[in-house]
Amino acid sequence: MVKGDLREAKQDFEKALDHNVWDQRTVIWLHLVRARLGESPRNETERHARRFDKGKWPGPALAALMGEISIESMIAAAREPSAIKTREQEAEAYFVAGEYYLAVKRAADARRMFEEVLKRNAPQLSVQAGAKAELRNLPK
Question: Least C-beta-crowded within 10 Å: which of 11, 98, 109, 130?
Fold first, then answer.
């Protein structure tokens, strides 16, 4: 996704999921890339999501992508008693939100979400690099 080749990213996520069906984040990324390709990922995501606790992060991200909770509720669910964990989970939540908004053609909202990722200052997370890449590709 970060490189901009969504078809290649889809293949990579599908292979990763073949090797580990318990990787919740791969299910999320596959859903997002398929949505951005204009596909309908809901049924596949629902099938995979049955394995996971949607009440524990990153489960709320899956719930939001399936329309069970709002994007705002997903972001709120990223908050934890630990400030470090909150920063990391919020960065991830804002990135998921940004990708969601790109998929539904809401570029201004996507930009705002990616900017929020950068405000979390979590350079150890792949979403930080992803947000920078997405911001470079969005119109000003």
Answer: 11
Please state, in angstroms and rounded to a whole number, the distance separating the CA atoms of residues 65 and 31: 8
pTM for the structure as a whole = 0.90
Long-range contacts formed by 20-23: CB under 8 A, 24+ apart:
21/48, 21/51, 22/51
Q: What is the CATH number of domain 6-137?
A: 1.25.40.10
Rounded to an integer, what distance in angstroms lies between the CA atom of residue 62 and that of residue 121? Answer: 24
In three state form, how does the secondary structure of the chain look? CCCCCHHHHHHHHHHHHHHCCCCHHHHHHHHHHHHHCCCCCHHHHHHHHCCCCCCCCCHHHHHHHCCCCCHHHHHHHCCCCCHHHHHHHHHHHHHHHHHHHHHCCCHHHHHHHHHHHHHCCCCCCHHHHHHHHHHHHCCC
Measured distance CA(97)–CA(70) in Å, rounded: 10
Question: Per-residue pLDDT tens for 48-67?
Answer: 888 898 999 999 999 999 99
User: Domain boundaries in the chain?
Assistant: 6-137
Q: Quick one: pLDDT at residue 21?
A: 82
